[in-house]
Amino acid sequence: MNIQNFNSTDIGLVRKANEDFMGQSETPNGHLYVVCDGMGGHIGGAIAAKIGVECIIEYLNKKVDSNVGELLIDAVKFANTQIFAKAIFDKQLKGMGATCVILLVTPDGFAWTCHVGDSRIYLYRNEKLSRLTKDHSYVQFLVDSGELKEEDAEKHPNKNQILRALGSDEDIKPELCAVPFRPENNDIFLLCSDGLTGMVNDENISKVIINSNLSELSDKLIEAALAGGGRDNVTVSIVEVSGMKQSSTIPSGDLNKIPLKVKIKNKRNILLISFLILVLGLSSTYYFGNTKQQDLISVKSGNLDSSKSLNKVNSKNRMLNDSGINDSSKKEKVKSPVSINKEKQKVVIDTDKEPNKNRTKKTVLDSTGSKSKANKGNATQSVNPGKKTKVTTSSDSIFKTKKPN
Q1: Which residues pair with 254 in a beta bridge?
Q2: Domain extents for the chain?
Q3: What are the CA-CA distances from residue 109 to residues 112, 181, 255 (Å)?
Q4: For burial by CB atoms within 10 Å, which of 37, 94, 96, 301 has the most?
């Protein structure tokens, strides 16, 4: 298995601080790639994103577990606890948080994804782009409920409202991929913040991938985001996997759009077992059905003696009468099932509240330029600082609001 990784991040054309952060590491659990997008003011957002990436990498380097799914969830929860605690003890950082996407390619060659918020992971295979994560956002909630079309989601005025974020609550519910899968040769994974997806739709992302060399792909995608307006920080991590065998399972996400072949092993055994179960079921039905009728077989059939048959039936009737079962006065009344109607609670979401746009804080980060790239190996990638206007609503709000336009 061979893996190549190329990373780029940019402050964008509007923001004056970069609150995105990314990192990668060769852990005992496999090759790890993380992208976090901070929120909560110039200082808070950058700190939250940095803590998120570093804590996840630290956790997966120190803990080894065969249950990879549980390990990833625990790593995200550990990062959430650290961000949440930091905000409690430092009042200047109150309300800070971060989105998070994780890709882990294990030593046995399986890809796992885990995420919180609206940063995304894509899979590019056979010239087709598929989204492996679903945004934890208000707009995605409207799409899932049928109130909004997918093509209108990016234009919705509340597209920056997210439902989950690291540090937003004491407890967090990360979303793990439904099924890990084995990448195929030349599969390309794209991890990115919403600074890319908010400026470039999936169709145009796919066109950039087709027309770019792998080594320049992350830069080309950022250029496309800047050309689209560059209203937010943009971070892109490209991971190409080669030297792999054919996929044996399928990834999460929109499975109808993912061109994966599924191997079903031992088809002959499955069909044979199914046939035997069917035969056994029919045989049982035939046997027990005939047994119940044997006591009532007519003498004309010639199979049973009439006296024996009548004695058998009379004997059963006496037993039933003695036990009181045939006594109509002693019959137990059977109550009909009670139907319980539970009215579903409807959650009313107030989308008219405007986020507090004045809760920005002075930057305390140094200025190091407008773009940086990550290297391969065990490292976290710092990003370019400056002013940024991500804010969050009060803690009583259902949503955390990012980056108002």
Answers
A1: none
A2: 2-262+353-401, 267-322
A3: 10, 8, 20
A4: 37
pTM for the structure as a whole: 0.65
Q: Candidates 3.40.430.10, 3.60.40.10, 3.40.50.150, 3.10.310.30; correct CATH number of 2-262+353-401?
A: 3.60.40.10
The CA-to-CA distance between both ends of the chain, in Å, stands at: 42
Beta carbons within 8 Å of 263's beta carbon, 6+ residues apart:
246, 248
Q: What is the CA radius of gyration of the chain?
A: 31
DSSP 348-379: P----PPP-TT------SPP--SEE-PPSSSE
> What is the tens place of the pLDDT at every residue in 232-283?
999 999 999 998 766 544 454 444 343 333 333 345 566 677 777 877 777 7
User: What does the alpha-carbon distance between residue 100 and residue 97 come to, in Å, rounded to a whole number?
Assistant: 10
- Tokens of residue 309, six digits: 């048959």
pLDDT in tens, 35-84: 999 998 768 999 999 999 999 999 999 999 999 999 999 999 999 999 99
